[in-house]
Design brief:
- This protein is of the alpha/beta class.
- The protein contains 24 helices and 15 strands.
- A hairpin with a 4-residue loop joins β14 and β15.
- α8 packs across α9 and α11 packs antiparallel against α13.
- About 13% of the residues have low confidence.
- Pathway: Protein modification; protein ubiquitination.
Amino acid sequence: MCEKIDLECSGLGEKRIVFPDKYCTSDDFKSVLLKEFPKLKEGGGFELLRPYGATRTKTLQVIPCPSEGYTPHYLQDTIGLHTATVYVRPLQKDLDRESSEPKCGSGPPVQCIYCKETFSHAEIQDHVDKCILSAKEKAAEREKNGSSGGQNCDRQDIINVEDSDHVFEDSCSSIQDHNEQVSERSQNSREQSHDLALEGTSNSSVLKFGSEDTEDWRTEPDLNRAGYIFRRSILQEVEDQPDLVAKMDLLKSPEEREREILTFYKHTVTNWARPLSVLLMGDSAIGDGVKRHFLSFVMSRDQYGFDLNLENCGRTIFFNGQEDHLVPSTSRLLLDSDLFRVIGRMIGHSFLHGGPLLTGLSRSLFSLLLGQKDEPAVLELEDCPDTDVTEIVSLLQGCVNLTKDEQDRVNSLAVNWDLPPVNERNRKWLAQSVLYHAVIVRREKQIRQIRQGLKDTRVLRMIKERSALIDVLFPRASAQRIEPEMILDRIIWPTVDSDDEEYGDYSLDDTYRMTGFFRQYIENGTPEELLQLIQFWVGWALLPQHLYVEVSSDITMPTASTCRETIKLPVKYSTYESFCKDLKAAVSSTETGFGLV
């Protein structure tokens, strides 16, 4: 208890810190900590620790620091910390524990709204009197020297803002004076600060985040980074709004779950760009892993089709065609049901929350998605999934004279699409016209609905204002391929002390054997198997920065904690064949179960 009091008196005691921006950078995270613990600047860096273990055997465990540094988003989504106690430890030297401001027993620290210095509760009033007096003297001196550009004002706080514009821009507290009658210069500065700040905040760092999120994504040279900044800015704007809650009943059949998803995304919601919460009925899983599972389920249906038999064809496919040449289905039922708008909402929603994307969309549709109707589409024969049409186009593009039957086939299609019959002069032109009609004209309404769905989620604005980002929203199919090296480079293997032979009920050799089997499984896995493994491991088929492996004697089947991006392997296997069989069985349970098998 005495040590705790000493830490409190030296300014190193327990504090409650709230980060207003979950998606802030590591530098901003560090700035907040250094503001709360100024002495930490002398420590040569810091690391974070969390309590681990039962009450009697609790120890402090170092939280791994990612390459970009600690951030609230990393601690919450990757480590699983929300409202929790975290310990801060200097890296290079012990900190001075002599009593410092604010002094013990003198109240909590308070920041001066004029000079931004921090004082104890008992000292702030005396300081404010001196601070205001100093401001008056400076104002009088400037007025005397003829250098004052402001108007006389009765309110001292307005004089202070007018005399020092940087004080106004650095402090959100000046927003409170927005309606005062001040000089034009001060008024313009006030309006600019109000535009940058989020409503209802008193943290000056939010000004920086607001400006960064609304501007940088338009000029950021790295397109993937620009997409991330845009996502973050949208989610930051709506973080105070109520969550959009999606429910999925795992006890129901896949068809019933798909129907629930379509019903959810057909709802008339005024703002789809809101924080997302997912409830899994029939499963106790919680955390961000649940959201990953939901978005992975949704986007896999967009990509590969629904099991729902809406058209008496067995499955309902929204996109068909070859890899990197996918185009929307021409189904009249899907179009009349406004389901492509639902698909657009799903795509935009998953993008906003960092989920899987629709890969392999034909680039010939990009100009339509961007609203660039005057931009000619560059078409390839592979963009048309209809083999009857591609055969006719191939005939027209060839150099061999058409037979009577071939001319009849071409003319029959041309008449149906209001195109002239074929002759020697229009043959090449007709080939392009048929291909354009088959790929573009027959899918304009579908694309219009998808654009409306993207607009509902506020993602359409991103590609309209910066068209290059459409490659981020609709990546190539190769972007989803996962190679063994991509997984192995991210794995954090179990750390053990070779001096200790026994680790509970299993030995060091057991650990090496299990990790060896697992490495062999990854190295021999096909791209499809690795994709399923990652989805089982983290909740969706997207590689995180780190993947964690643990070995346990308390389980009988491989299990995954998706929120922690951790896979646990039993120690019972003596052969690779039995290990591989059980791991494949566990991975295949992703659709019917979640998290733990």
